[in-house]
Every structure is written in structure tokens, then in C-alpha cells.
């Protein structure tokens, strides 16, 4: 049962344009949503997060939007740069006794120079 | 401040052997998480530990897998009698606290190959 879904396994975007990565979830009890970026042969690194009580959080070129009614969040990167090419994981946290973090399957972003 | 360290980075084991994966959390972090990433899949939670305690092992297979985080030394994920299906990347993450927005710091992973 995949509670956090990233339905696009890959995405290609031209340098300078906007990248939009999508994530859907099924559990309305999720408290927080996080995005991680992963380069090959490295562990994921935290990028940006959003509380379930907010609908937008911005950090530089990265903005995360949350639509609770649709159980959907998206990560916008603008302008996209070649160094943004990586796998992006969406994650959600839920308290089941302790806090548990559930990851999506990832979207591979390729920014073309 | 050194990041999360994992060793070995690559581990090859024959079917039936034991695999031991080590994780040293960031300094000051007392919460350790282990995840497994199978090919073409996302990160799957396995176990959450604090010093000398297993807090949540709901994601860990009931047999052959065990984890510990002793008072001194790294956290160890142990897989006994490995099978081909155990081939995956195993990531360790640490955090200074737990909570809904608990940002986790990941190590580079150990890639286990079972031949």
C-alpha cells in the first residue's frame, strides 16, 4: 500500500524553465511533507518542507505547494539549473506511536543545458 | 562536523552469508533510522532506534534482520543468511530529535549485492 505516490518516474526540463514535481498521498493524518534530493552514489539531502496547516512554503528557487483537499503537493523549481538534475523524493510524516516517515518512489529530474 | 557515515559503501555476499552494515550518526544525534531502497523503488522504512533501544521496527522483516544502536559505537544492521532479494541500497539517517518535521540527515548508503 503506497501511501505516498510520485507517478512520474522522470522529467526533463530546459535550463531556465520551471520544473514541477508532483506527489499524491492517501493518508489525511500526515503532519508534514518533505522533499529530498538525491544525487547518484549519495544519500538523500533535505530540500524543503511544509506543514499540513500551510499551503505554500518558499525557499529561494524552491517552492512547495500543498492542496489538502486534493491530497496533492508539488515542488516548483524556478529557474531550473543543470545542477538540479537529481532524483527527488517526496516524504510525509505521521505519528503512529512515534513519528514515521514515508517516502515516495522518486522522480528523476534532468535539466537540459 | 562530519556527516552520517556508513560502511562499507559496497558489500558483496554469497547467498547464506551474513551481512553487517554500520552507521555512525552525526555528532549529537541520538535518533537513527534505517531505510532500504530496492531497484526502481523508493526508500522503505525499516527500523528506528535510539541509544540502546529499538523504538519502531515495524518495517523490518521478522526473520534474518536485526538492528542495534549500542551505547558506544555505531548502529549495526545485521542480515543473516542473505538471499538474492536482499540486494539493495541500505541508507541510514540520523536526527537530533524526533517530531513531525524531523529533518533527517542521510548517509551515503551501503549497496549490498548478494550473488
Short note summarizing the structure:
The complex is a heterodimer of chains A (113) and B (115). Chain A is mainly beta.
Give short descriptive properties of this protein.
heterodimer; A: 113 residues; mainly beta; six-stranded mixed sheet; five-stranded antiparallel sheet; 59% strand; globular; B: 115 residues; seven-stranded mixed sheet; four-stranded antiparallel sheet; 11 strands
Q: Give the strand tally of chain B.
A: 11
Radius of gyration computed on alpha carbons of chain B: 13 Å
On the 0 to 100 scale, the average pLDDT of chain A is 93
Shape of chain B: globular
Write the layout of secondary structure elements.
The complex is a heterodimer of chains A (113) and B (115).
Chain A: E1 4-5, E2 10-14, E3 19-25, E4 32-38, E5 45-51, E6 56-59, E7 62-67, E8 72-77, E9 86-96, E10 98-103, E11 107-112
Chain B: E1 5-7, E2 10-13, E3 19-24, E4 31-37, E5 43-50, E6 53-56, E7 65-68, E8 75-79, E9 88-95, E10 105-106, E11 110-114
Parallel strand pairs in B: 2-11
Antiparallel strand pairs in B: 1-3, 3-8, 4-5, 4-9, 5-6, 7-8, 9-10, 9-11
